[in-house]
Amino acid sequence: MKKTLILFCLMVAIGSLQAQEYEANWESLDQRPVPTWFEDAKFGIFIHWGPYSVPAWSPKGTYTEWYQYWLQSKKLFGNGDFEGDEVYQYHVNTYGKDFPYYNFGEMFTADLFDPEEWAALFEKAGAKYIVLTSKHHDGFTLWPNEQANDRGFAWNSMEVGAMRDLVGELTAAVRKTPVKMGVYYSLYEWYHPWWQNDKARFVDEHYLPQIKDLVQRYQPDILWTDGEWEMEGEQWRSEEFLAWLYNESAAKDHILVNDRWGKGLRQKHGGYYTTEYEAGKTFDKPWEECRGMGFSFGYNQNEDAQDYNSTQALILMLVDIVSNGGNLLLDIGPDARGSIPPIMQQRLLEIGEWLQVNGEAIYGTRKWTQAAQWSEGDRKINHEKGYLGGDYILKQTVDPTPGKAVKELFFTQKEGDVYAISPIYPADQLLIKGIHASASTEVTLLGYDAPLDFEQQGNDLLVKVPRLASNEMPCAHAWSFRMTDVE
């Protein structure tokens, strides 16, 4: 009888959640809860892949996925000093003056794309979700879609180039794993004739039916929108769309969205908040930082090994973001044939190896009372360029600039335990400030079997760290110390 009552109450609770109706206004829509799995996930993989992966070239410090815009506008922005016509000159010299961007669709073959291999790599990397570009600002869709062809010619992966439903194939493969499946979708398209000449028609006849088709076909766990900044949310009819998404769509019971729904709406409305090539941010709701392994999101054959962040930098970046309550959405850019460049695979696998040991201090954690333990000095990040490079975290930890403060430890917490993550393996002792041990406190190093000795020194905890040979180290790059029952 008791079990039956519990089951009945659970069914009522689930039914109430599903029955909740959202109104087409931000006051109502912002009540939509962000599912716990997202806050627990901490690490996701972004995938930028499309016809821009064919030329896969732009000057260092710029986004290659913007190739069409750089080509046709003869403008460039990013980190660096540019003339503006670099992509145009490269294009003319490589493909000829009369070679339109749309020809890259046929060359986007994806003939080496193996969705099962991709999904296995993502799982091994320790990612808990992925986000695939279903359509970027060039308008090419990676799934069969009617609206993609309303320019007057086929512009989707089922009819051009690959001749495959790439979103569908990857979705099916990822869903065989514990990894959640998300899709990126650009609201605007640079050179769609309706966008240029009749934006209301673009929204009503192109954007809205297209994004609804994407949701209904694949029912993603995340809908990651972008390209929203040209118009207000009212012009995009965002509140109306989200009410449909939450109340009527096939994904209404589980779908999660970000905050990119109109000009000026980021970090104000929507689902979780997003940052891009930023650091030091923290919010009172779930959030996510996205950035590339190198600089570009799309594959850039112009980037060399030194342009990619090291595994150490990426791991410390992940720890930094998680200590502030956020997730890291780390981007990879496959090539036009569907191969993930080996340097990207290597970085992902090495992050996965680190998470195998230290995942307990990352997954499912929340912010502690302080995100980091700082040394004395200036904490400001010197940042002159438009986008903050990944080396910022090395300057804050293992390669400091004289006079600058250093993050000696990062903190996370979970189920009553506090984790102190050190970017440097301590020589003999680890000083953890502001920690009070209780009679039942135990300190351990993740990946090391025996508990560690410690003593209370006023308001601080002094932990005796084992001396280990390089082949005895539980991991590389950062070390996690778990403290139970601290006050």
Automatic annotation (TrEMBL):
EC number, as in UniProt: 3.2.1.51
GO cellular component term, pick one: lysosome
GO terms assigned for molecular function: alpha-L-fucosidase activity
SUPFAM superfamilies: (Trans)glycosidases (SSF51445)
SMART domains, sorted: Alpha_L_fucos (SM00812)
Keyword Signal among record annotations: yes
Gene3D superfamilies: Glycosidases, Golgi alpha-mannosidase II
UniProt KW keywords: Glycosidase, Hydrolase, Signal
Boundaries of every Glycoside hydrolase family 29 N-terminal domain copy: 17-360
Entry keyword annotation includes Membrane: no
Signal peptide range: 1-19
Pfam families according to UniProt: Alpha_L_fucos, Fucosidase_C
Positions marked as site (May be important for catalysis): C290
Biological process terms in GO annotation: fucose metabolic process; glycoside catabolic process
Residue ranges of every copy of the Alpha-L-fucosidase C-terminal domain listed in the record: 407-484
General function of this protein: Alpha-L-fucosidase is responsible for hydrolyzing the alpha-1,6-linked fucose joined to the reducing-end N-acetylglucosamine of the carbohydrate moieties of glycoproteins.
Protein family (similarity comment): Belongs to the glycosyl hydrolase 29 family.
Descriptive protein name: alpha-L-fucosidase
